[in-house]
Amino acid sequence: MSVVRPVTLVTGAAGGIGAALARRLAAGHDLILSGRNVGALEALCAEVGGAALVLDLTRPEGFADALAGVGRVTNVVHNAGVVELGAVAEQGHGVWSHTLAVNVVAPAELTRLLLPRVRAERGSVVFVNSGAGLRANAGWGSYAASKFGLKALADALREEEAGAGVRVSSVYPGRTATPMQEKVRSQEGAAYTPEAFIDPDSVAATIEFVLNAPRDATLPDVSVRPGPR
Questions:
Q1: H helix runs in 26-140, sequence order
Q2: 134 falls in which pLDDT band (50, 70, 90)?
Q3: Catalytic residues
Q4: Statement: the pTM of the whole predicted model exceeds 0.70
Q5: Are strands 75-78 and 124-128 parallel, antiparallel or unpaired?
Q6: How far apart are CA 157 and CA 73, in angstroms?
Q7: Residue 2 pLDDT more than 70?
Q8: What is the dihedral of CA 101, 105, 107, 108, to 10 degrees?
Q9: Of 184 and 67, the one with more pLDDT
Q10: What 3-state DSSP class applies to 222?
């Protein structure tokens, strides 16, 4: 008897954590890898055997058309995100609107559109959050607000969809060695030293564990912090 493999959609797939997750899941999942960089997505798909889904997360009105040709979806991993550091006194509404649009509104709309597919599979929705989704520090107001909002989205969705058999998890990585972290360190005026931060594959391993956890367990909130050196 053939085994039906889960179909997992990953946003921000060409980034550090997303690409690491795609490589980890490739052996057991059929993958739909989403992002804006067509070249990077196609290269990753050629490597791991997934299908590319080009999405502009600032334009959720285009999601329905983009998903029209998508079949089964078992799991959704919301991994894409943006960050722009700055004090509340200095950041205008443009930064806030863009950050909230990509980090909260896009995941909410994508989830809404994919829920019928995920319910049919009794699958999982995983939100890759941040330590900033649990505590807001100076200079991180817009980003933290978006991640607090993402936690609220996940918490509400978990209660709403439990009866449909959908598992919902938030994963809160600490500082991870990704291109986003390199940008953050530049904005902080500090050197970027990858080995000082969590390896993206370590975060990916955690997400893989959440997705593949036995059906009698759910992991609502999982924090990933640097281990002892």
A1: 38-48, 63-67, 93-100, 106-121
A2: very high
A3: 143
A4: yes
A5: parallel
A6: 17
A7: no
A8: 180
A9: 67
A10: strand
